[in-house]
Amino acid sequence: MEDVMGNLKAIGVFDGRYNKYVNEFEEIFSEFGLMKRRVQVEIKWLFFLSRELKLFEIDKDIVESINNIYKKFDIKDAKHIKEIEKTTNHDVKAVEYFIKEKLDKVGASEIKEWVHFACTSEDINNNSYALMLKEGKNIISKALEQNIKKLEEFGKKYKDVSMISRTHGQPASPTTAGKEFINFAFRLKKEYEKLNRHEVEGKMNGASGNFNAHQFVFDNVDWISKSSEFIDNYLKIKPLIFSTQINNYSYISELLHILIRIASIVIDIDRDIWGYISFDYLKQKVVKGEVGSSTMPHKVNPIDFENS
């Protein structure tokens, strides 16, 4: 039953009743997801310091084991980080200690003090958020692409099916069902293209955005260039060159505005389809066993369009 209805003690509907519709995002936007990306950023930075800056060597025989610290990160690891945090009272520091423990276990104790080198917590966090949003954005993009294709399919299929259009809620000039579907496909496609062009951004420049610790220890390194190289090549996100201690996160605002417009178009689709059902233009399929109303069981209510 729990698989159907979700966690019955969940406070929010997306963790409970409607979890089945969004459970793809659990591995990304949960605290578990954040921990995993933090570990990923720390490990990638460790490899970058070794491979690109030649600050130390990593035995090739343990490279896979070190990569697996984040690639095989599981709920047991996440719980262990929470245990460490009970002592540190600092979430990012707990991740650092967790990685050092793992390095001890794979025989890499000699390099463990390079973990988190010159980083402030925000260097790890902002890149983790960027990775999370990039993954989540890709899921939304794929779902949007499928819906656009379906709307285009309906547009072609029903291009010759005439229907009365309505303006101000009143009967107006004729249109076709196909044209109405294509209209929504056209609107969604514009936002879909903007979504795919959108880039997440990350910064790796220390406690005040000036590479102070980096430059003090290794003043022969072009840290602006190397930081950009790390973010671009190792994390596959867009480098943010100028910042304070924190990422300005303007890219998140840009992303949310795209999602707002997508949501508004989807609401328009839902309302129009709801109206077509109300006007008897469309009929809903009856599903055996389902009840549309506690007192009028013969009804089939458009609940999916109302919940969408």
Provide key terms for this protein.
308 residues; Fumarase C, Chain B, domain 1; Fumarase C, Chain A, domain 2; 2 domains; two-stranded antiparallel sheet; 4 strands; Fumarate_lyase_fam; lyase; lyase activity
- Spatial strand order of the main sheet: 1-2
Beginning-to-end CA distance, first to last residue: 23 Å
**CATH superfamily annotation of the largest domain:** Fumarase/aspartase (Central domain)
Strands, count: 4
InterPro entries: Fumarase/histidase_N, Fumarate_lyase_CS, Fumarate_lyase_fam, Fumarate_lyase_N, L-Aspartase-like, PurB_bact
Protein name: Adenylosuccinate lyase
Keywords: Lyase
EC number: 4.3.2.2
Q: What is this entry, summarized?
A:
It contains 13 helices and four strands. The protein has 308 residues and is mainly α. The chain has two domains: 117 residues, Orthogonal Bundle (Fumarase C, Chain B, domain 1), CATH 1.10.275; 144 residues, Fumarase C, Chain A, domain 2, CATH 1.20.200.
Write up what this structure looks like.
The chain has 308 residues and is mostly helical. It has helices spanning 2-5, 19-22, 26-29, 31-51, 63-71, 75-88, 91-105, 121-157, 177-197, 212-217, 223-234, 250-278, 303-307, and strands at 162-167, 170-176, 201-202, 238-239. The strands form two sheets. Strands 1-2 form a two-stranded antiparallel ribbon. A two-stranded parallel sheet has the order 3-4. Helix 9 (177-197) packs antiparallel against helix 12 (250-278). Pfam families: Lyase_1. This is Adenylosuccinate lyase. InterPro entries: Fumarase/histidase_N, Fumarate_lyase_CS, Fumarate_lyase_fam, Fumarate_lyase_N, L-Aspartase-like, PurB_bact.
